[in-house]
Structures are given as C-alpha cells and as structure tokens.
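User: Predict the structure for this protein chain, please.
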Amino acid sequence: MLNKSALIGILEEKGLSAVLAQAGIITRRSLGQNFLIDQNFLKFIVKTAGLSKDDYALEIGSGPGLLTGLIAQNAKYVWAVEIDKKVFQVSQSINPGLTNVRWINESILDREQINPIVLKDIRPSELMNLSTKCVSLPSKRDEPKLKVLSNLPYASSAAIIMALLESKLPISEMTLMMQLEMAQRLTAKPKTKEYNAFTILVNLMGAVKIVRKIPPDVFYPKPKVTSALLTISPYHKPIENYAKFKDIIQTIFRYRRKTIGRILKETCASNNINKILTKTGISPTMRPEEITGEKYLKLIDEL
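Assistant: Here is the predicted structure, written as structure tokens:
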C-alpha cells in the first residue's frame, strides 16, 4: 500500500518525479505518459473548461491526479478514468478525501468505442436518454452538462475523440490537450495536406478551436514535441446515415491522390457519378482535400 501522507509530503517538497520514483513508476511512452505539472497551466485548463457546480466532468487519463483535484473543486461530480494501475493508486493517494470523485481503473476505449464498463459507471439516470437513436445525444436545457477534460495520448487521440462524439453521452464541451500536429489536423482547412476524413467528421459534429500552444517544459517527462489545448463543442445534430457517410468519407481519403470522379467510379455502384457531382457542385477533377464537409454531406446523400 502507498503511504498517502508520505506521498503528499514528497509531492509538496520535491515534485511529481519524486512521487513517481517513490511509487516505483517508470513512465511509459506507449501510454502517452507525459504528465502536466505546471500549476498555472493546470488552472488555465480548468478555467478554459468553464466548470461550475452544476457540471459533471469526465477526465480521461487522469494520471497522477494533479488536474483531478482542481476539477473536483469546481465541478459537481467527476469520473476520473486511468488505465495504469500504479499511477491510478498514486492519484488516489495524493487526493484524499474527495467525496465527489469516482475513480475508475480502466481503459476509456474498447474496440474504438467508449468502454462499456466506463459507460455504465458514468451514466446515472439523469445523464441518460434511452429513447434517442442518434449518433449524438440531443442536449436539453434541463439536462446536466457533462464536460470532458483530458491530456490525450497521441496514439489514441483520434480514436478517443471519435468515440466520444459518436457516444450518446450529453457532452457539452471537451477541453483536450494533445500534440500540436493532431490539433492542426482537427482545425485544418480544405486544400491543405492536414485536411482529411477525420477533420471532416469531427468538424461536422462539433465546433473545434485551438486555444493555445503548450510548451514541452510544463510536462514530466518532457515530450519532444509541442502540445496544444483545444476545445470541441458538440453540435448534437445527428448526421443522416452516419455509418454510410463515415465509411464513404474514409474510403475516399484512402485514395486522396486521385480525383473524386475517378474514386467514385472505382468504388461506387452508381452509373451516374458525373451527374451526381454536377448536382452537388463538385467538379469530377477535384481532389478529396479540396471538398468541404458540407459538400460531402450533399454528395453522399445523393449516392
């Protein structure tokens, strides 16, 4: 068992690196374990999330709990999800007495969807709407707000974001840290190399904004790249035939060097590709990255 009072003393005197050493923890790159340790940035994240005592919060990858404690001070209730068992134990040890935090030692993902074990835990009756069949849950004024905060691991950032947007959780806002490269993909514009199927899907399902860059020296251990703080505000407006739309968009961008006319003729059964493209205002000679998400919606509705 970890000595709670000893770990708190070490944290206050020597910092997180000493706490992790005391607990026998070696950070793992495979889990994206670069923990934010700067108090000013931690407070800035909570401020950006706009938490209030009416809000429920889901923290994904709660790590050693430095952010968790601040979230708990500002929100009504917090679900803190952490996959690493040793780090999970540290987070509880340095945050004693938090009565509004539910600690969950699980992966947030299961086969590219939100882990059912986690979903079951974070869906009290007031957060559920079982009647909906939409990809995104329509938000009602009298529903509690669920805000997501996370320092996302690079390897699973895209999968976690998509799983959250596709879930039926009534998420009002996501405040996410990630590698700058990923943030630039999420906010990319047409006719850029960063613009892809992921960009289109996320932006059709929510408003995306980069808040600021985050330098490497505010993390432990220091990553080799610059990070960014980004927000996503879900629209909660379901995309018609979402599964079909997602499948076709991903297929199109697998052949992004070809023209849209050629891609569709090679991958779709329709004999009226040129007619459909003309109707939706898309030239057959355009490349996938030149077409806006709104035009893709019209195109795929016609296919």
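The longest strand covers residues 171-179.
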